[in-house]
Amino acid sequence: MDKDLKKVVVLLAHPNMENSQANKTLFDVIKDMEEVAVFNLYEMPSEDLLNMDAWSRIISHATVLIYQFPFYWMSAPSLLKQWQDRIFTYLAKTPAVAGKPLLVATTTGSEFDAYRSGGRNRFTVDELLRPYQAGAVHAGMVWQTPFVVYGMGTPEAEKNIAQAADLYKKRVSAFISKEASEDNW
């Protein structure tokens, strides 16, 4: 796993990537970027997924951490939670993550309007992602405005994915171009 010492570490948590539309497209636009290491948690052997020493080196070397996942039942798929419980809990108490940006990149089945106080889902995505934000703040990380691709279960899905792919690549590129010592993320 040490070959993956890159500036941007993406933890991809999707249990069915071969049937994914949005997350696969987002993955495809960043996977070959020179300073990006993508770890698909669902394709990793459990000994790597929970290897504290390897993750400590990877995250210590990185300048930004991205959680990428489909929004399942208002949260991430379970392996990201397992990684957080076993690895991030430890790293949050170390300088490995302090001061680094944390970005959540997620996709939703519902359209944007469903995620508001009067909408079908009753809450905004920002509200539903508060546990991730609280974890980042607790660990001394810099919470980033989430990157959300809405409407994967709507007729607008293809259009939304196409627009999001370019924006995601630009957002990740911006992290790469920033200096590691920069405090203004």
Automatic annotation (TrEMBL):
Alphabetic keyword roster: Oxidoreductase
UniProt superkingdom: Bacteria
InterPro entries: Flavodoxin_fold (IPR003680), Flavoprotein-like_sf (IPR029039), KefG/KefF (IPR046980)
Pfam families, alphabetized: Flavodoxin_2 (PF02525)
MF annotations from Gene Ontology: electron transfer activity; FMN binding; NAD(P)H dehydrogenase (quinone) activity
Domain Flavodoxin-like fold: 6-171
Tagged with keyword Secreted: no
Protein name per its UniProtKB record: Glutathione-regulated potassium-efflux system ancillary protein KefG
